[in-house]
Amino acid sequence: METLEVSLGERSYPIHIGPGLIADSALLERSVTAEQVLIVTNETVAPLYLARLEAGLKARRTSALVLPDGEQYKTLETFARIVDRLIELRFHRDACIIALGGGVIGDLAGFAAASYQRGIDFVQVPTTLLAQVDSSVGGKTAVNHPHAKNMIGAFHQPVSVLADTDTLATLPGRELAAGIAEIVKYGLIVDPELFAWLEDNIERLIALDAGALAHAVRRSCEIKAAIVAVDEREQGKRALLNLGHTFGHALEAIGGYGSWLHGEAVAIGTMLAANTSHRQGWLSAADCRRIETLLRRAGLPVKAGGVGADDMLEAMTLDKKAGRHGLRLVLLRRIGEAVLTAAPEREVLREVLDPEPGA
Ligand SMILES: NC(=O)c1ccc[n+]([C@@H]2O[C@H](COP(=O)([O-])OP(=O)(O)OC[C@H]3O[C@@H](n4cnc5c(N)ncnc54)[C@H](O)[C@@H]3O)[C@@H](O)[C@H]2O)c1
What we know:
This protein is α/β, with parallel strands linked by helices.
């Protein structure tokens, strides 16, 4: 097991990465100190891992809430179900929620933990690659609004993250690829060596090679932890983590949160951001091709197809990152260097979004 730290003063917490963590009673005992514990999970993950986690937590009385599976359930209604259960169980302020699942469960359970009695502890037990490299770290919690992604939420850091890499063995290939999209993102924004490592090792990652997985999860968490430590509330550098996300969130909202996986939408968004960067004269055509080739080799989509530029532009202006300064985008100067900047003119975006109108 490897342990990193997210350094946030009194809100600092460890990220443990390794095989077999959800059955490690000693680690669970240290990580979950509350007497009242609610495990929030979903109907796909529960049959796979809930009993193992409960057995590992044997010293504690736990309850479990099994939610329906899917991004379309990342809503205020599902959030209310968690709060209802906490009240039924008469949980106090010193209770703890454990989020066992992917990013949807982590975001939902985290937001419930942020809100219940103005904030209780929560522990992240991410079981998708995307959640292990990204969503379980950093304390962003949220639910979606029908018209805009992650519109209702809070910053609330977990007290611990336990990334059990064994759980990735049951992850469908499409979900694994979605997680790789976020690892590519880290390479693109700050770490050209990670990007080059992915170019050399993508097949090992797809084959769930233990060494490759451990490296990718650890390096991703190191990068995210370092960025969150200097900019917890996204006043500056943390915004770079949104590379591809303004385009991606728009695609997800247009598709009704059912067409694209989050990571797939991010992959298409990353390609759109790369093409926009090239149009601005920043990113070279050769680097654009490297990005497209790597995303394709990971099994990720690089084009939306059938989504109109006007619909995209409309959805992008609803994105949270469109503030009083207008729409801003994370663009690339080169592989490994990103900047947050005012979006180019609508016409430029329209050309990138719809390179062959009417085709
Ligand atoms: N809070 C953040 O900082 C942050 C960052 C990135 C993404 N997100 C959010 O995360 C969500 C996407 O997360 P995700 O990609 O993990 O999706 P997800 O939570 O929907 O999980 C993907 C699918 O895999 C299943 N699954 C989970 N673990 C499994 C396992 N070990 N074996 C088999 N199946 C398993 C899930 O039930 C689901 O069907 C989006 O809502 C996105 O907005 C949040």
